[in-house]
Design a protein that fits this description.
The complex is a heterodimer of chains A (382) and B (376).
Chain A (H helix, E strand, L loop, with lengths): L3 E12 L2 E13 L4 E5 L6 H8 L7 E8 L2 E2 L5 H7 L4 E4 L3 H4 L6 H12 L5 H14 L5 H4 L9 H13 L5 E5 L7 H18 L2 E6 L2 H7 L2 E6 L2 E7 H6 L4 H9 L38 H5 L5 E2 L7 E2 L12 H14 L2 H19 L4 H14 L3
Parallel strand pairs in A: 3-8, 3-9, 6-7, 7-8
Antiparallel strand pairs in A: 1-2, 1-4, 4-5, 9-10, 10-12, 11-12
Helix pairs in contact in A: 4-5, 5-7, 7-8, 14-15
Chain B lengths: L13 E16 L5 E17 L3 E5 L6 H8 L7 E6 L2 E2 L5 H10 E4 L13 H11 L5 H14 L16 H13 L5 E5 L7 H18 L2 E5 L3 H7 L2 E6 L2 E7 H6 L4 H9 L5 H6 L40 E2 L30 E2 L12 H5 L5
Parallel strand pairs in B: 3-8, 3-9, 6-7, 7-8
Antiparallel strand pairs in B: 1-2, 1-4, 4-5, 9-10, 10-12, 11-12
Helix pairs in contact in B: 3-4, 3-5, 4-5, 5-6
The chains are: A alpha/beta (382), B alpha/beta (376).
Chain lengths: 382, 376
């Protein structure tokens, strides 16, 4: 049975500058015991998406539904949500220093959380449970460390304490929002390892929000790649990494330096993510896309299956067969672009390429320069 | 340049020579009468060389001293002891006035493109500052040079009068690069230049840095915590831990055959954007956190967390020793102590050096050993 089923979620924020359309029609499922990785750059809507589920985006205009254990989270009253948050769904945030209260002892903060949800638990019992939890997440000497203040913990230990708190009431779902971004590599490895092990023990489902494809490759089962408030591609982990269909996913993978991709130059994605107030027409990725053709300029593609199994979906007008990094897939993409690209789309593609050329050779013609000036203007609206 | 301070003739290959640099910061306590109660050993006896036109990558975790070392090289922090020799000149004891010409030759690019640009000044003025400070160009000439720089780093020169807030993160980092480039420095110190940028933008800035290096023959001291980024840009890499260099060598050599257990752990911890690599990898999970640099462990500083530690490691500090299985590059014989070539055993030179009593041999697995104290 599906644990969480989000359907066509829209979130927007009215601001003085215009409506920020942070999430525009996202649907996804989370199965018990599975890990969904949500990847995206800043401003892709990944954090707003999950915070909305927990009622943490006051002032937002929300539409859609989010069924969790048979009830719609988006229809719940504040009081009902309070019983879900922490107990059924818990959250681990990026910065453990700002999410722990600096003036209360770690143990007090954990037992407070237990007692807020389970009224019958005595202070002593809650305190004992805090010690057990700290031991479970690998805090040395938990009997004494339980009386420490957050500043007495290192960054990695604080994040462990946050995880202990998230586990306290044995939730069905944990949402981890960039939980390791502020940590050093060796500590990040410790925390990811811990999350994986705890998940195997307890069967909790996990939503892992991150900008780091490496973290996703490590611990996700399924991956959703977000761009400009929408899912660009959704698939089991291996498909995303080895048979990406959406040019944005492919571009992300190619722009990471890696030992396999030897050679002097990286292949960046030109331009920058669009402003969420003033989105481009058609496919929101088209101004940066190397495969842009005419249809992309006017119509926004929906997620459609690109593999026979149907679990791999992509929001791109390229044909289903054009998935993967192979030469055949590349040839198919080129064929489609040849056949479908008109004058206008060619202009968009040239502008994107020109921008890369700028950072490349330092040579440019007057024509390229003016083309780039136009894209720059579009890009710097934010 | 002040010839009085010149202590050796400029080498052909070496731009910067860091010799036994120590940087301690006093720890003060007390209310009315402040007194020193200890020292933060930020950088402890570090030597390295940066070659002309090449990139030395510096990796290490928070508190390893890499940023402090970079600031010592830039002359922004006085060293406690040791020497920094730039282009043949010892710059560690120069007066402010004598420092000036040197400051033109070394520039920095910082991590955060949001806080390193003054939000209330126009981009043209920010990039033009170096010209104003060093009085090299004024008026229309300055504007022309600034616009040329903007063009060179991929910004629209017409945006001369805009404020930093009107640019995206990647564009702001380009502004920082333009400012660093203004006086045609020989060395640019890049302190986490792409860490704050989105993945798709990161590659744009890295390509720009690489183009500029080829075009102007720049040397880079490149600090980053992302190991793949460092591997991509660096010719030589040095790994720092608690104020010391644990291992250094040519980038490919160090990444393919790491010898220090800390390097092995660091490399195994770095997330790989490839599920098969991630699954196949044996992760060395280190015990605990980095100890306090106020009271660093005796002996090898890594020994309390090291899966291979033995008794001697807690007593005797291992020196940096060359791995003799790596042959010197062709045409590069054993350099004499005063020859103009990088001394082989100094980090940043051609040799692969490791400070460890029990270096890891190829094929050896640390993962099994490391697992035992996982939760300690």
């Amino acid at each position: 049975m599906t644990l969480l089923e989000v359907k066509d979620l829209h979130v927007s924020f009215p601001t003085a500058d215009g409506v920020v359309r942070a999430v525009r029609g996202v649907s996804f499922d989370v199965e018990p015991g599975r890990t969904l990785g949500i990847v995206g750059e800043s401003g892709s809507g990944k954090t707003v998406l999950t915070q909305t589920l927990l009622g943490l985006t006051p002032g937002a205009e929300v539409a859609g539904s989010a069924e969790f254990e048979g009830a719609d989270l988006l229809q719940m009253t504040d009081d009902q949500l309070r019983h879900v948050r922490g107990a059924r769904i818990s959250v681990i945030f990026q910065d453990p220093l700002t999410s722990l209260h600096p003036l209360y002892r770690i143990g007090w903060q954990i037992s407070e959380m237990i007692r807020a949800h389970e009224k019958s638990v005595s202070k002593k019992e809650a305190g004992d449970r805090a010690v057990v939890l700290l031991r479970r997440v690998g805090i040395p000497r938990p009997e004494t460390r339980v009386n420490d203040y957050p500043h007495q913990f290192s960054g990695g230990m604080r994040q462990r304490a946050m995880i202990a708190m998230a586990l306290a009431l044995e939730p069905k779902l944990i949402i981890a929002d960039e939980p390791t971004t502020a940590l050093d590599a060796t500590v990040q490895a410790q925390i990811l390892d811990l999350l994986l092990r705890l998940q195997q023990d307890s069967g909790t489902a996990l939503i892992m929000i991150t900008h780091d494809l490496g973290v996703v490759a490590d611990i996700a089962d399924d991956v959703m790649v977000m761009y400009a408030g929408r899912a660009a591609e959704k698939a089991p982990k291996r498909d995303v990494f080895y048979a990406p269909h959406h040019p944005y996913t492919k571009g992300l993978l190619e722009s990471i330096p890696s030992s396999k991709a030897a050679g002097d130059r990286l292949k960046p994605i030109p331009g920058q993510p669009p402003s969420l107030i003033n989105l481009p027409s058609g496919c929101k990725f088209h101004p940066r896309c190397g495969y842009v053709f005419d249809r992309c300029l006017t119509e926004e593609p929906a997620l459609h299956p690109v593999a026979e199994k149907g679990s791999h979906t992509s929001a791109c007008w390229l044909p289903a067969g054009a998935a993967g990094l192979s030469a055949e897939a590349e040839e198919l993409r080129e064929q489609v672009v040849q056949a479908e690209r008109g004058k206008e789309a060619a202009g968009v593609a040239a502008a994107a390429l020109a921008e890369l050329g700028i950072s490349g050779t330092g040579e440019e013609t007057a024509e390229e320069s003016s083309a780039r000036a136009t894209t720059d203007n579009e890009g710097s609206v934010a | 340049m002040a010839s009085a301070t010149r202590e050796s003739k400029p080498d052909d290959d070496v731009l910067v020579r860091v010799e036994n640099v120590v940087k301690h910061f006093p720890v003060k306590a007390g209310g009315f009468v402040r007194h020193t109660v200890g020292q933060v050993h930020a950088v402890d006896d570090v030597s390295l060389v940066i070659e002309r036109g090449k990139t030395l990558g510096l990796v290490g975790e928070t508190g390893s001293g890499k940023s402090t070392l970079a600031r010592c090289v830039a002359g922004l922090l006085p060293v406690t002891s040791g020497r920094v020799i730039f282009n043949g000149t010892n710059i560690t004891r120069l007066s402010r006035a004598a420092m000036r010409p040197y400051r033109r030759e070394v520039q920095m690019i910082f991590q955060d493109p949001y806080s390193s640009l003054n939000p209330r000044r126009r981009v043209g003025a920010i990039i033009g500052d170096p010209f104003a400070i060093h009085k090299t160009a004024t008026g229309a000439e300055r504007k022309r040079q600034v616009q040329e720089l903007m063009e060179r780093v991929g910004l629209n020169p017409e945006h001369f009068n805009r404020f930093p807030a009107e640019f995206s993160g990647g564009q702001r980092q380009r502004i920082g690069v333009a400012r660093a480039l203004a006086l045609r420095p020989k060395l640019i110190i890049c302190d986490e230049p792409v860490s704050a940028l989105d993945v798709s933008i990161q590659a744009q800035v890295l390509n720009l840095l690489s183009d500029l290096q080829h075009e102007y023959g720049l040397s880079y001291l490149f600090i980053a915590h992302d190991l793949e980024v460092v591997r991509h840009v660096s010719d030589k890499v040095a790994v720092m831990y608690l104020g010391r260099i644990g291992e250094a060598g040519p980038a490919e050599e160090l990444y393919d055959k790491p010898r220090h257990p800390y390097t092995v752990a660091l490399l195994s911890a770095a997330p790989a954007a490839d599920p098969d690599t991630a699954a196949a990898r044996q992760r060395v999970i280190l015990v605990g956190d980095v100890p306090s640099p106020i009271d660093p462990p005796a002996g090898c500083r890594f020994h309390p967390r090291c899966p291979k530690a033995q008794e001697i490691c807690g007593k005797v500090e291992p020196p940096l020793v060359r791995d003799d299985s790596v042959p010197p590059p062709a045409g590069d014989g054993e350099p004499g102590p005063d020859a103009g070539q990088p001394a082989a055993d100094v980090p940043g030179g051609w040799a692969h050096v490791t400070a460890c009593h029990f270096p890891v041999v190829p094929g050896e697995s640390l993962a099994a050993v490391g697992a035992k104290g996982e939760l300690a």
